[in-house]
Amino acid sequence: MPIPAEIHNQRYISLATFRKTGVAVCTPVWFAEDSGRLYVMTNPKLAKVKRIRNNAQAKIAPCTIRGKITGPEFPATARILPPEDNARALNLIKEKYWLARIPLLWRNSSTCIEVTPTAA
User: For 64-88, what is each residue's pLDDT tens digit?
Assistant: First the structure.
């Protein structure tokens, strides 16, 4: 499934990952787009990484910087990229967001997540 038009070219998306209890936890994130997939950088110690390892199901939606959802939600699957694939994803994010180029701000964001929209 291609990236939904409502997500395409947004500044932020809400990435909802699911706890073991099934409760969704929404996080506003920066993202980059490439070949029908979205890429997000994060700190490997954050809970969303643990939730994705336990359950690959996710939801994405356009949102504001503070996480207020501004459009429809779409089902997706998420996976933690292996370290050898992180460089390409990080470069895509750095091309889109100039603040992502400042190493001191993002020194702990060494993990990338690949999000693939799925059919409902």
Answer: 999 999 999 999 999 999 989 988 9
